[in-house]
Amino acid sequence: MSKQVAVKKNTTTAAVAAPKVEQPAAPVSKPLAYHLADGFRPEHGNLLKAHTEAFFRVTDMVNGKRVPTSLAQTVLGKAAVSWHTKKGNFDITAQGLGLSDAGELKFGLRGINEEFCAAYVAVMTEGTLQPGVGVKAEVGIKKL
Question: Which of 12, 83, 88, 132 lies in the 20 to 30 Å Cα band around 72?
Fold first, then answer.
């Protein structure tokens, strides 16, 4: 007599999550006045995501504003701006650089460490070192 084995049916189904719809972010009340110098910007992970998001918030790009391409290159880095433009996340018009529809979706789905993002906003608006930004010396902060 053969042994019967219970087979568990796969009860999970793959579902594509709908993009999270959020209210437009409130603009940061202080203007962009500082940036991290080359070699001091984060290159990957949560710090990079938070740095990028802080720039979007300080410049109000999160709400559709466009910025001079040269400003984005200074703050985010030329390679980052070039890469995201080629990938279709940024678009450049006569009015400046902005988030494309694809970019809004891509960046909107990123998980952001709000503590790190707030620290980068303080760096960009006040020029002060903040815990968690990965910069140990004020030499890495430059006035625009």
Answer: 132
pTM of the model: 0.80
86-113 pLDDT per residue, tens: 999 999 999 999 999 999 999 999 999 9
* Residue 32 contacts residue 59 (beta carbons within 8 Å): yes
CA distance 117 to 46: 9
Which of 47, 25, 44, 61 minimizes the C-alpha distance to 120? 47
71 residue type, one letter: L
Query: C-alpha dihedral over 119, 36, 132, 46, to 10 degrees?
Result: 90
Residues 22-71 have pLDDT tens digits of 444 656 789 999 999 998 999 999 999 999 999 999 999 999 999 999 99
